[in-house]
């Protein structure tokens, strides 16, 4: 059986090394399992301490996706096994969300450059891995989305923090509709830094191995880390040298930004929801699909995503992960998350029975339960040690 994550070190011309981590589950579009999370976390920690390793490259196998999300089948099984026992009894969900969020936060605060090759589909948990990388690279096939409203979850893995930092109110629109970002809109939304055509990627890797990386080539594994600024600059130089010459046309998010900001202005979710719903028959298929996805999605997820963005607007990244952890565990017992997975992936009838069934029922009072810690009183938050000073 192949390992779910492949690790390789390649030696550059000056003796420094690059670490390549490849998500290796192409049959599930590199969906992120707890085993993959643990393997990545352990290797990233080892590479962080290695004075002879200059930078990390994170990529996906198979050519279709970097990562299409998390291990929903495993989470569904755990919810079935612990039905009626409360969120804290679900040890798998507790471990998965804690360790996934730790890994994402580690990438955000990593001491060395991380190049993420966001080729193909990047959704959910894949967004969590990619967004913290110092050098986020997209290709002509990139499609980025956080479509959790369709499965009764919310844009987690730091999504509340990320969406709040997008232009205007576009982040709220994306959370409510699960709309896809193409390559151009990835730049507009601030979730991509560089662009490389997929056919050019092997030459990028070759160029990385010719760069004069700073550090202690062949030095001790626990020596001083390489100078960060120098290696960040070298990585940027290589990527810019392989950027396509043709300019990108504005994507649909940017084209409709004025309308989206108008629709999503204000603090009344019911008004925003109604305004987006009116787009379901719009002549532009991107807008029409966005509205249709929202209307078919979980009203509870819409309320929760909206509440999280409001609640975390001025919070540090570490705080956002802590808040999302509580909300994610609440999702494992409130019903819509299991129902959404059932309808999409288990029975595949695509006919979820959401509860609450309407946005009116998913009220501001109703959503408060998602902010109540499920662990015993007096116990510290499992992510209490994330350091907000590093955000």
From TrEMBL:
Residue intervals of the Enoyl-CoA hydratase/isomerase domain: 19-371
EC number(s) per entry: 3.1.2.4
Residue ranges of the region described as Disordered: 371-391
GO molecular function, one term: hydrolase activity
Keywords, ordered alphabetically: Hydrolase
SUPFAM superfamilies recorded: ClpP/crotonase
EC main group: hydrolase
Protein name (record): 3-hydroxyisobutyryl-CoA hydrolase
Organism: Bordetella petrii
């Amino acid at each position: 059986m192949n390992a779910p994550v492949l690790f390789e070190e390649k030696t550059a011309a000056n003796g420094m090394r690059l670490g390549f981590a490849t998500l290796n589950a192409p049959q599930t579009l590199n969906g992120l399992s707890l085993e993959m999370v643990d393997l990545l976390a352990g290797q990233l920690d080892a590479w962080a301490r290695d004075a002879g390793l200059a930078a990390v490259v994170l990529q996906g196998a198979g050519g279709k996706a970097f990562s299409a999300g998390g291990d929903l089948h495993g989470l569904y099984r755990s919810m079935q096994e612990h039905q009626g026992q409360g969120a804290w009894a679900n040890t798998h969900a507790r471990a998965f969300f804690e360790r996934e969020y730790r890994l994402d936060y580690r990438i955000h605060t990593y001491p060395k450059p991380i190049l993420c090759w966001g080729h193909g589909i990047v959704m959910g948990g894949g967004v969590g891995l990619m967004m913290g990388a110092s050098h986020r690279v997209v290709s002509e096939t990139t499609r980025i989305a956080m479509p959790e409203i369709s499965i009764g979850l919310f844009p987690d893995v730091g999504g509340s923090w990320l969406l709040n930092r997008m232009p205007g109110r576009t982040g709220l629109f994306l959370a409510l509709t699960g709309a896809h970002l193409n390559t151009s809109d990835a730049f507009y939304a601030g979730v991509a830094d560089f662009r490389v055509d997929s056919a050019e990627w092997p030459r990028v890797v070759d160029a990385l191995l010719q760069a004069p990386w700073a550090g202690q080539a062949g030095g001790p594994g626990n020596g001083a880390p390489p100078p960060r600024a120098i290696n960040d600059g070298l990585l940027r130089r290589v990527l810019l040298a392989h950027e396509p010459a043709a300019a990108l046309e504005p994507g649909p998010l940017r084209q409709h930004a004025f309308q989206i900001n108008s629709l999503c202005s204000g603090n009344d979710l019911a008004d925003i929801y109604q305004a987006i719903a009116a787009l379901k028959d719009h002549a532009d298929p991107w807008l029409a699909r966005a509205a249709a996805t929202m209307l078919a999605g979980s009203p509870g997820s819409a309320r929760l995503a909206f509440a999280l963005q409001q609640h975390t607007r001025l919070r540090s990244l570490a705080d956002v992960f802590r808040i999302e952890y509580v909300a994610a565990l609440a999702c494992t017992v409130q019903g819509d998350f299991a129902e959404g997975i059932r309808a999409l992936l288990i029975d595949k009838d695509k006919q979820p029975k959401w509860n609450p069934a309407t946005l009116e029922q998913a009220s501001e009072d109703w959503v408060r339960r998602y902010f109540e810690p499920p662990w015993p009183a007096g116990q510290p938050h499992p992510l209490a040690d994330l350091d907000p000073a590093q955000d």
